[in-house]
Amino acid sequence: MGVVCVEQHRTAIAAAVAAGARRVLYTSQMGAGAASHFQACRDHAATEEILRGCGVPFTALRNGFYAASATRFLDHALETGEILLPADGPVAWTTHADLAEATAAVLADEGRFEGPTPPLTASRALTFDDIAALASEVTGRRFTRSTATEAAFRDQLVAQGVPAHYADQFLGIFAAARAGEFATADPALAELLGREPVGMREVLGEALGEAPGEHPSDG
Question: Which one, of 9, 55, 53, lies nearest residue 28 by Cα?
Answer without folding.
Answer: 9
